[in-house]
Amino acid sequence: EYKATQVYGFCITKDKLVCLVRDKGEQRFTLQGGGIDGHEHPEDALKREFIEEAQFKVKNIKLLGSLEVIVEEDGKLTEKTQQVRYICEADEIVEFIPNKDGWETEQRIFVHYTDIPNYVKWIKYPSGKEVF
Fold first, then answer.
1. How many C-beta neighbours within 10 Å does residue 41 have?
2. Ramachandran class of 65: left when φ > 0, alpha when ψ lies in -120 to 50, beta otherwise
3. Alpha-carbon distances of 15 from 60, 89, 106, rounded to whole Å
4. Are 81 and 5 in contact (CB under 8 A)?
5. What's the CA gap between 86 and 94, in Å, rounded?
6. DSSP 8-state secondary structure symbol assigned to residue 118
7. What's the average model confidence in pLDDT over 80-90?
8. Are 85 and 61 in contact (CB under 8 A)?
9. Contact criterion met (CB below 8 Å) for 57 and 18
10. What is the pLDDT at residue 102?
């Protein structure tokens, strides 16, 4: 049986920019997303993650697809997840407050889609480019 465990989203603004976030203590930027809670539907998880991390709501959510992510360290499996990826539009964007409500997000930026590989490193790999 298919069981999604994570969601991530590419969110486009009306100016055709993509939102990225950076967590406290991190150097890298990422897409908004994370784990799916309990019996939460993946789209609901995506909406929640955008509110928690980017501090705005999304609309017009469209499924891009899903993929299995396997992480190995020293030849041993350390993580295996099923990610669902979406593309969506930003709804009303409000002022960003770093670490709002105790969440880990320290910075939110908007970049042109062609610049995403400069921030999200996995897109530089062949498998990432296919998803992108």
1. 12
2. left
3. 16, 11, 23
4. yes
5. 22
6. G
7. 90
8. no
9. no
10. 85
